[in-house]
Amino acid sequence: AADCFQRGLLSGRHVLINAGPTREAIDPVRYISNHSSGKMGFALAEAAAEAGARVTLIAGPVNLPTPTRVQRVDVVSAQDMLEACQAALPADLFIASAAVADYRPDTCAEQKLKKTPGSDDGMTLRLIRNPDILATLATGAQRPRCCVGFAAETQDVLGYARDKLQRKNLDLIIANDVSQSGIGFNSDDNAVTLIDQQLTTTTLPQASKQKLARDIISRLAALLDQQDS
Length: 229
Ligand code: CTP
Ligand code: CA
Hints:
By secondary structure, the protein is of the alpha/beta class. It has helices spanning 39-50, 78-88, 133-138, 157-167, 209-228, and strands spanning 14-19, 24-27, 30-32, 54-59, 70-74, 93-96, 103-105, 127-129, 146-153, 172-177, 189-196, 201-208. The strands form 3 sheets. The protein has an 8-stranded mixed beta sheet with strand order 5-4-1-6-9-10-11-12, with helices on both faces. The protein is globular and about 70 Å long. The structure holds cytidine-5'-triphosphate and calcium ion. Cytidine-5'-triphosphate (CTP) binds next to helix 3 and strand 9.
């Protein structure tokens, strides 16, 4: 039955997953972040552990319990998340579900920023690019054999997703249309389309993130077995 799902499918594998948002400090009390809940990544970690994998979950600031038998490492910024992911290598499978902030303030002010007294002026923050965690791991010397990305898009979902699959050297990308309400970011349900290296697309219709996670993990276990043979 669905309950004794895939027991052992991932036994002997080390699965590395990152999840949630990152926070990029502006000053001691302020930051830039996004609305990622981390739910999809935590559901994937739970499903991978149920399938018998050793699971390392690198989590940005989220409000979620740690799944059973999952080793969780909490981080804050994109740079911390990159270092924690690298420290967890080697891994057989890397799933990058984190909503990594693309930019960070070029410096973090040491003291709380103050408005200029007597002025109604606006203010400008200078932002610089964060490292691309997924591309770094997927092109690195210790590349996990199977690297999987997510692509949250609001338009031309499959086009942008295919582009990321190729540009970041991935085995699979999971495309996510975040313009639809009720699914994706911060919701309990999701609907995704998988695109592999042959550009074959597989659509998994709207379901709970738990159900989707199990489906995705079964497919990734099959992909790893296929790479073995
Ligand atoms: N990603 C990452 N490090 C970043 C940015 C993104 O590891 N600095 C990963 C995400 O975890 C995801 C994939 O790359 O698995 C795609 O993220 P997305 O934000 O959709 O793509 P970007 O490459 O950042 O492009 P853009 O935001 O401009 O669409
Ligand atoms: Ca991005």
